[in-house]
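Example record

One chain of 546 residues, shown exactly as stored in the release files.
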Amino acid sequence: MIRSAHVDTFARDHLPAPEARPEFHFDLPELQFPERLNCASELLDRHVIEGRGSRRCVSAPGGPSWTYAELQQKADAIAHVLVAECGLVPGNRVLLRSANKPMLVACWFAVVKAGGIAVGTMPMLRAKELGQIVERGHVTIALCDAALGGELAAAAAAQPRLARIVHFAVGHGAAATDGLEARMARHAGQPFANVDTAADDTCLFAFTSGTTGQPKATMHFHRDVIASCLCFPPHVLRAAPDDVFIGSPPLAFTFGLGGLTVFPMHIGASTVLLEKAGPPDLLEAIAAHRATVCFTAPTSYRAMAAGARERKLGMRDGGTLRKCVAAGEALPAATRALWKEATGIEIIDGIGATEMFHIFIAADEAHARPGATGVAVPGYRARVVDEDGNDVPVGTIGRLAVQGPTGCRYLSDPRQADYVKGGWNYTGDAYLQDADGYFFYQSRTDDMIISAGYNIAALEVEDVLLRHEAVAECAVVGAADEERGQIVKAFVVLRSGHSADEAMVKELQDFVKATVAPYKYPRAVEFREALPRTETGKLQRFRLRQ
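Predicted structure tokens for this chain:
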């Protein structure tokens, strides 16, 4: 094992046992990494050192626009704040809470430069969910947009280990003097010497809820971040330094972190970050910023098609948009055809996983096939297997198993044994593979609901509904939906004295929205006298799905 730079050894101490980890493969020549590697040096500082500091790096509508040199200066100042004023030592976890904006990128790089572990959180998370992340990750420091401070303060009240919260975008007044920007000013112009981290030091905890709603922290090394830049981007995406990236996924998702920060910055391109990235916002920003590469979910492409045609965003019609990546949920063939008809652009479909960091099966524009996700990305290998891990015949549905330079490492979690078997990563997806090696998505093999690109644990929504005084029993499943792929549907048995009407539907929906991230709320609620169960009382979810 390479000598770690981490003084706080929490992450390394809680890695899965060696025999529980997947096999890692570094078959491509470019995947041969040195023992010492800090991914911030490669993604950010390298461009300044090599004379590209004046290139535009990151911007936001109505917000700042920073060059690589300016982003480096911001990140260096924040790194000094973390070390000198917050007491960060290498290996400490730092929670990041913000909508997609340049300051969030600066904070992420500051943590990585200082040898810390960045813990991204989605803006919509509530105190309950934030508290779980703080507890599982033993988080002691947080950098938080002041606009999102309320839920984090509530979480911190129940989690005393989170001792230091520094807010940014505080505004004016007494509080601003203690805000991050004021602290940064005290260190302005002072270069920060990046910590000499090992390539296999953890730099990122990416949380995923799993099927139970209990969060799992996936642990990614510095080398994982750079490895992700050397597989899908050069071999499938093939973007260029002059490209302008844009999209909708939050940076707390590895889909967003890769597509909107890591990938563009690896090649010296620029990215536009949107606080609000619904289809109308994304369409407007693509046109206004002359974006060329878009990352979003299939649902958004379908919703944007008419507007994209009207605005003539594709290069076929004189627009700038030339590459579009879809992931987060299955891409329907009809959506692919609709977007191509509207823009002339063939969507680059892909499947990735938080556990793998990013996309590992995809097809470029020239090799896309309707209904197929694609083939294994160079650097990865994939199989469709049965329950015993044996390859199934061509055209047969089975479980997807993957290996490559990245893979699943859960933070001290027995669910590692469910994801990694025999050295392979089992993603929880059912696929079939044709004779040409193309993979065709069939369904999830667990109870995860994927709605408009968001992973939603059915059991977590059930837990919230059962806290409502009117609910006696409930069951949550994913229901097919043309627009969102799936929606959350709740089957509810009410206690006596409560009416099964539209007012109750709205009351339950609002209750869920107020307790957990609003995207998890049940868009459909069906009241039942009883739920289908076996003689032993086990819930028969398959009957509800039918």
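Notes: The mean pLDDT is 94.
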